[in-house]
Fold this sequence. Notes:
By secondary structure, the chain is α/β, with parallel strands linked by helices. The chain has a single domain, classed as Rossmann fold. The chain has eleven helices and 14 strands. The protein has an eight-stranded mixed β-sheet with strand order 6-5-4-9-12-13-1-14, sandwiched between helices. Strands 2-3 form a two-stranded antiparallel ribbon. It has a two-stranded antiparallel ribbon with strand order 7-8. A hairpin with a 2-residue loop joins β10 (276-278) and β11 (281-283).
Amino acid sequence: xxxxxxxxxxxxxxxxxxxxxxxxxxxxxxxxxxxxxxxxxxxxxxxxxxxxxxxxxxxxxxxxxxxxxxxxxxxxxxxxxxxxxxxxxxxxxxxxxxxxxxxxxxxxxxxxxxxxxxxxxxxxxxxxxxxxxxxxxxxxxxxxxxxxxxxxxxxxxxxxxxxxxxxxxxxxxxxxxxxxxxxxxxxxxxxxxxxxxxxxxxxxxxxxxxxxxxxxxxxxxxxxxxxxxxxxxxxxxxxxxxxxxxxxxxxxxxxxxxxxxxxxxxxxxxxxxxxxxxxxxxxxxxxxxxxxxxxxxxxxxxxxxxxxxxxxxxxxxxxxxxxxxxxxxxxxxxxxxxxxxxxxxxxxxxxxxxxxxxxxxxxxxxxxxxxxxxxxxxxxxxxxxxxxxxxxxxxxxxxxxxxxxxxxxxxx
Length: 412
């Protein structure tokens, strides 16, 4: 493996990274270089790429479209594999009013995260609670979702508390990377080198030194940010693309390759999704991981349920995601999964669990109730839960609602 393809995770010594990021140099991008690289990106150009038809349920998998899911079933599991240490267990915290005049009450967020962790783990000492999931030797990736800028994205204040927990467990800052599929969206959501000194910021999609997604040879700058040596997700369908359609990522063929962030760099992942809808269901833990980690995703909406669930069965996600911390301080109940400020509201909730299927099932129930109350839909549709059952069938968690233990807490 070429040394230039290794992501340098330390954010301490990257002050000289140039504004123009080379193709291979991108995966050296640390905290000091992230904000500059983000300035190269085309703002908002990809924001709606994963959006299905409005008010419609996600497309369901035609019986004749095959994937390579059976191959991954045979891959041995580890002690850290999903659904993790607490299968079927979810903690939901009513935080009370957190957002006021556009500002986040950081102290209340800290209280909510620490209470959620204590209730999930049974440990009141945060160093002990976080040490159940990580060790000082781990390289920990914090998977955020910055799709909506300041409107609806993972809140930096939530990530602050997670970093404090990781530090309490002995993980050095040089072993922490905040990452997403789209690096260029992170600054608008508050994830910059200045905001997170010493922490690496990373992504997969990018523009290069010519301020374009393609280099002088017509090749994608981001092509080396995906791992062609690792096992890919195969689905027997294709889409036609032109040069400027979803140009930041490899988008052709029947293969979806995983980002090197998950295949080569991190040893543990803390998943920090936001709560929003896709038709009559949620895009939360499972989709933040699957569509956030692979290339060539637009074609996969034809098999939405399968393509949300199945990539999580690959060891790069299945064996590394040890915790899900849901940021539902603000949530979106309609016109998702792209960010739409008109339908964003202050939900003042957080959820915690090692089981992404169980967390998604609880969130689905909650958001459907909100949508019914607001007149967006009249009843739940069983097929909107199909991805949960598929994920449970892969051993990734518990999907039947009556098999999930939910602890609900309201902060005073």
